[in-house]
C-alpha cells in the first residue's frame, strides 16, 4: 500500500485531507510539526504532503533537510504562499510539486496519484530470500554496472548512478531525468517528452520544475566531477553529452 505522510498543523485542514486520502486507498500518517515530520520521514513514506507554515520550523527547511538526508520520495508542498518566487524556492529546496491554497479536491487527488505512480516505478527490487529459511532475508545489493572506471554509469534497474567508484545520490526525479537523457546520450530530449515521462502526461504545474530539477542535477554531477554534462538546447530541450575535459 502506498504510504503518505501528511504534515499540517491545522487540525480542521488535516483531518479532512487525511480522510480523503484514506478513502483513496493510501496509508496516511499525520503529524503537525516539522520535527515530527523529519522523524516520520525516516520511515520512508512514498509521498509527503507538506505544509510550510508549521509551528516549530519552516516547511522549506523540512524539505531541504529531508533531501539532504537522502530522502528520495515524492514531496508536495501545500501552502497559502502562492507567489512564483515561493514556488521556485520550494522546488529548488527539493519539492516535486507545489499546490497553492485554496485548491480543488480533484486536483489534489490527481497530484498525489502522480507522485504515488512515480514512487511505485522507483521502488527498489524485492529482497532476495536466503538459502537457509531460518535466516532473515536480505535485500539484494547490486554491484556497480560494468563500464569504464572513469565513466558516468546509470543503472536503471537498481536506480543507482556512479562516477568512477563513487555513487551519486539523486532524488527520484533527478534520476528519472538523467536516465531518460542517458538512454539517448548525445541526442536531444524535448521538454515535452521529459515532462510527460518524468512528471506525468497530466501534469498540472509549471514546467519550471523541470528547469529546477535539471539545475540540481547539474550541480550534483559537477560536484562529483562527472565526465558528462546536461546541456540546454534552447527552445527544444536537453541532452547529456560527454565532457572530454573530465574524461
Question: Could you outline the blueprint of secondary structure elements for this entry?
Answer:
Layout: E1 3-7, H1 11-23, E2 27-31, H2 34-41, E3 47-51, H3 59-68, E4 74-79, H4 84-92, E5 97-100, H5 105-121, E6 152-155, E7 160-163, E8 166-167, H6 172-183, E9 189-190, H7 191-199, H8 208-223, E10 228-233, E11 237-242
Parallel strand pairs: 1-2, 1-3, 3-4, 4-5
Antiparallel strand pairs: 6-7, 7-8, 9-11, 10-11
Helix pairs in contact: 2-3, 6-8
**What fold name goes in the CATH topology slot of the largest domain?**
Rossmann fold
Number of helices: 8
Largest sheet: 5 strands, parallel
Tell me the series of helices and strands, N- to C-terminal: EHEHEHEHEHEEEHEHHEE
| DSSP summary, beta strand count | 11
CATH class of the largest domain: Alpha Beta
Mean pLDDT, as a whole number? Answer: 82
The residue fraction in helices comes out at 25-40%
Distance between the termini: 43 Å
Structural class: alpha/beta
Number of domains: 2
Overall morphology: elongated
Low-confidence stretches: 125-133, 135-150
Amino acid at each position: 500500500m502506498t504510504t503518505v505522510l501528511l504534515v499540517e498543523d491545522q487540525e480542521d485542514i488535516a483531518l479532512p485531507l487525511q480522510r480523503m486520502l484514506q478513502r483513496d486507498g493510501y496509508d496516511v500518517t499525520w503529524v503537525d510539526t516539522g520535527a515530527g515530520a523529519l522523524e516520520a520521514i525516516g520511515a520512508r513514506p512514498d509521498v509527503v504532503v507538506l505544509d510550510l507554515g508549521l509551528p516549530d520550523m519552516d516547511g522549506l527547511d523540512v524539505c531541504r533537510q529531508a533531501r539532504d538526508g537522502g530522502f528520495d520520495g515524492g514531496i508536495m508542498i501545500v501552502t497559502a504562499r502562492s507567489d512564483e518566487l515561493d514556488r521556485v524556492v520550494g522546488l529548488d529546496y527539493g519539492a516535486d510539486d507545489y499546490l497553492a491554497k485554496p485548491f480543488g479536491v480533484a486536483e489534489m487527488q490527481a497530484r498525489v496519484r502522480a507522485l504515488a505512480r512515480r514512487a511505485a516505478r522507483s521502488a527498489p527490487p524485492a529482497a532476495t530470500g536466503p538459502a537457509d529459511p531460518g535466516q532473515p532475508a536480505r535485500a539484494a545489493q547490486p554491484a556497480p554496472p560494468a563500464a569504464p572506471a572513469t565513466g558516468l554509469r546509470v543503472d536503471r534497474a537498481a536506480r543507482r548512478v556512479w562516477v568512477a567508484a563513487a555513487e551519486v545520490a539523486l532524488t527520484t526525479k533527478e534520476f528519472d531525468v538523467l536516465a531518460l537523457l542517458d538512454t539517448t546520450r548525445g541526442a536531444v530530449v524535448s521538454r515535452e517528452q521529459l515532462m510527460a515521462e518524468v512528471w506525468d502526461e497530466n501534469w498540472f504545474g509549471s514546467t519550471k520544475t523541470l528547469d529546477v530539477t535539471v539545475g540540481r542535477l547539474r550541480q550534483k554531477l559537477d560536484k562529483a566531477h562527472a565526465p558528462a554534462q546536461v546541456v540546454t538546447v534552447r527552445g527544444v530541450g536537453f541532452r547529456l553529452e560527454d565532457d572530454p575535459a573530465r574524461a
